[in-house]
């Protein structure tokens, strides 16, 4: 096993990496106690014992080095030298590789709190990658091991653990809880934590320098809401829940989310944040304030995006909802779109650094652009269609910067294709309705034949059938025709069951299947599952 390990940095560089970790990642999620961790580092440095004598400690230490290496590597603006991002990632991966090598040893040996911390730290590291498989697996292992140790329970006096140990267990568990519940909502993976079994209190001490604001505590509260969204809106039981109950549940969840958002103090708001770390005045870092806003708007989408699909199902059944229920569902769709627009706007505040998690750099911006794209192609004549495309291009521009800063390591070229296809949809729809003047035709004649329909924003006049409305030519499409007059859409089916051309990926908007775009990503924008998309296919 030792032959597979990469050499560790010299003590001076290692101290720099450890310091960088505690200055950055620890302020987000206080997984470790700084003083205790440094004592262990010094103990191993001045003894004849090898780090490998304690496999859990070795895995934790090398993962901390990898996380800190990313932070140090990102101190230089990657846009000044794009290769810097890739270099920081490559250097960090050398240390993380060591933790991966001893992973099987971690699982097979006796579980300790350090073992749980190691897997939790590995999950934090995996959150920076573009593939979610490792993040989900590391988190699942950490959660299972922690529950095996009873960390999800309130410590009993019979357990004979000190108050400090109890606080440490609480800190670690709630970090894991946030990971598990947000992964579940974001990716549609099953949660490994049953809320009914959790009695572990939130910690009173956080192990961070500033007590004026705790991103960690707000994240933990947010995770509880995420758990309720997943279980009450997307569980098997929720799928057969009466529409009236589902609407009531959504309103209750939105009220809880709004109270959470209102509780964020003024100095932690995005407009009052600072680009650096916590300073003496307690100003919250810009990235943390930005993450809180992303949390809020994404949860709004998660609560309300269920209802356009719900409306579609009812419109296909004999029991269509009454007008009041329809109006409520239209309002839900409007809120989902507004939140998606806010997500796209927030992207302009993002900066590209190697230590930024992928859910911040990739997941949330993609969820916004895909929701807007779906809305435009389903209702290309909506008055908001052109402005939605402009917002989509804000995200496209950010992904262009991301590709530049990573030297092509993260390339989302198909997002630009989405904007182009959306414009094609608008152009085609306007031409068919006579809204675009062409030589040899009378503009007044074309306009007189138009019968405008309300889009999802017009809550007072929308009907059940117009909420998820496709152009008639789309529903009547055949393999040889397309409702958009461009080659790109010739092999794309929009919920009509038309098979794709051999060897090409389709864009399927069927409610029960994931949407895929030419093997780059898939998503469930209108599926009954909470995951907005699946990055397993990301290349």
TrEMBL record:
<dbReference type="Pfam" id="PF04082">
    <property type="entry name" value="Fungal_trans"/>
</dbReference>
<keyword id="KW-0539">Nucleus</keyword>
<dbReference type="InterPro" id="IPR007219">
    <property type="entry name" value="XnlR_reg_dom"/>
</dbReference>
<dbReference type="GO" id="GO:0005634">
    <property type="term" value="C:nucleus"/>
</dbReference>
<feature type="compositionally biased region" description="Polar residues">
    <location>
        <begin position="441"/>
        <end position="454"/>
    </location>
</feature>
<feature type="region of interest" description="Disordered">
    <location>
        <begin position="429"/>
        <end position="454"/>
    </location>
</feature>
<keyword id="KW-0238">DNA-binding</keyword>
<feature type="domain" description="Xylanolytic transcriptional activator regulatory">
    <location>
        <begin position="135"/>
        <end position="209"/>
    </location>
</feature>
<keyword id="KW-0805">Transcription regulation</keyword>
<dbReference type="GO" id="GO:0006351">
    <property type="term" value="P:DNA-templated transcription"/>
</dbReference>
<dbReference type="GO" id="GO:0003700">
    <property type="term" value="F:DNA-binding transcription factor activity"/>
</dbReference>
<dbReference type="GO" id="GO:0008270">
    <property type="term" value="F:zinc ion binding"/>
</dbReference>
<protein>
    <recommendedName>
        <fullName>Xylanolytic transcriptional activator regulatory domain-containing protein</fullName>
    </recommendedName>
</protein>
<dbReference type="GO" id="GO:0003677">
    <property type="term" value="F:DNA binding"/>
</dbReference>
<keyword id="KW-0804">Transcription</keyword>
<dbReference type="InterPro" id="IPR050987">
    <property type="entry name" value="AtrR-like"/>
</dbReference>
